[in-house]
Amino acid sequence: MFYVGVIFISLVGALLHFVYEFSGHNKIVAVFAAVNESTWEHIKICMTATLIWSLYDGFVYGIDTNYLIGKSMCLLTIILVIPILFYTYTFFTKRSILIIDIICFVITVYLSQLVFYHYINASFLPFIYTYLAAILLFAEMSAYLTLTYMPFKNFIFRDPISHKYGLEGHTEMHHHDHKKHKELVILLLVLLLLSGCFKTKKELTRLFEVDVSKCEFEDEKEHREGFNGDGEYVAILNCSKMNNEELTTKWKKLPVSDEINEVMQMIRCDEDKCLNAIERYNIPLDGNGYYFFYDRHSDAVDKHSSIPLNDRASYNFSLAIFNVENKKIYLYELDT
After folding, report:
1. Rounded distance, CA 253 to CA 287, Å?
2. Cis before 255? omega within 30
3. What pLDDT shows up at residue 174?
4. Where does a domain end: 148, 171, 194?
5. Which domain holds residue 175?
6. How far is it, in rounded angstroms, from Cα 140 to Cα 291?
7. Which of 69, 206, 215, 250 gives 133 a disulfide partner, CB atoms 3.0 to 4.6 angstroms apart?
């Protein structure tokens, strides 16, 4: 869900540019939405969107011992990167440019999520790191909740239009401002429609019930698009330190079942050729190895049984194959 998170945070951040205006200058809304065009207010809306996304990643990763560290460092990345990018490029251009502002915002979101997942995928860290992360998070949230009402009198908090600070720096939106914000939202909506969702090692470990933290991604292809996410996802992990003794009983000896083989033999055409999944992605369905099947279809009763796979109008399943010879895991997901 890495890229979905990046696009979601970017989109919500864009919407938060004018929520304060549309709320009729509500003082509560001012806590989390932009009240002026200062650098701090852009930092704040990025933090707001990230905290909203935490409703998802907190549910998925909240029990992870590194979660608090990852979240505090994620927010710190936002606080540092936005001003660095903005003041670096405006040093040369002498003025802000909308499209570059958009790019800087998305880059910041991307880097902050990259930092978050770095800690989520890292090995267990000593408690002192969590303790320091809690202190850092407290300082970040204190700044987030108070600095709009009690801003420092410096360039980070000064509105470039009114040259004032905090709530006093707010200027009413005119037609040109609406046009700029609409352009921003449209761009981010397009990105949302085109976005896919690459997986983390923690997600794969939970799904396939095998620890892949020491494996390395050799290849990853995301061919699912839009809101429904129809298409294929393929990844190859090099797991040189893994052996078949680490696999649970839900991993079965190759070859795969007839039902899985039938689906994998289905021909799909793209712009230049027609191939099945085996040919297109070089996925080994037999030989010395094991496979793990997980049926994600809403009608599935036994999630690990492939028997009803071809009796439905659509496919929603995940397949992992561990090749004992080359120590690689081949992941394949199909959604139609």
Report:
1. 9
2. yes
3. 46
4. 194
5. 2-194
6. 45
7. 69
Chain centroid offset of residue 189 CA: 16
What distance in Å separates the CA atoms of residue 67 and residue 77, rounded to the nearest whole number?
Answer: 15
Distance of CA 3 to the CA centre of its chain: 4
Q: From 194, 228, 248, give the residue that closes a domain.
A: 194
Question: What domain count does the chain have?
Answer: 2
Residues 276 and 233 in one domain: yes
* Residue-wise pLDDT tens digits, 8-23: 898 898 888 878 888 8
Same domain, 169 and 47: yes
Give pLDDT, residue 232.
84
What whole-number distance in Å separates Cα of residue 176 and Cα of residue 167?
21
Separation of alpha carbons 188 and 214, rounded Å: 35
Same domain (yes/no): 185, 206: no
Do 231 and 173 have their domain in common? no
Q: Domain check: are 263 and 134 in the same one? A: no
Q: Classify the phi-psi angles of 165: left when phi > 0, otherwise alpha if psi is within -120 to 50, otherwise beta.
A: beta
Q: Answer yes or no: are the C-beta atoms of 150 and 166 closer than 8 Å.
A: yes
Rounded CA gap, 74 and 117, in Å? 9
The answer on 181 and 123 residing in a single domain is yes
Q: ∠ at Cα 25 (21, 30), nearest 5°?
A: 95
Which residues are paired to 333 by β-bridges? 233, 318
Give the model confidence (pLDDT) of 188-228 as tens digits: 555 555 444 456 666 777 778 888 877 888 888 777 554 45
Gap between the Cα atoms of 116 and 2, Å rounded: 10
Q: What angle do CA 225, 9, 135 make, to 5 degrees?
A: 140
169 and 209 fall within a common domain:
no
Half-sphere exposure for 203 (CA within 13 Å, toward CB):
13
Of 246, 268, 265, 264, which is closest to residue 318 (Cα–Cα)?
A: 264
The predicted structure's pLDDT at residue 175: 43
**Ramachandran class of 209: left when φ > 0, alpha when ψ lies in -120 to 50, beta otherwise:** left
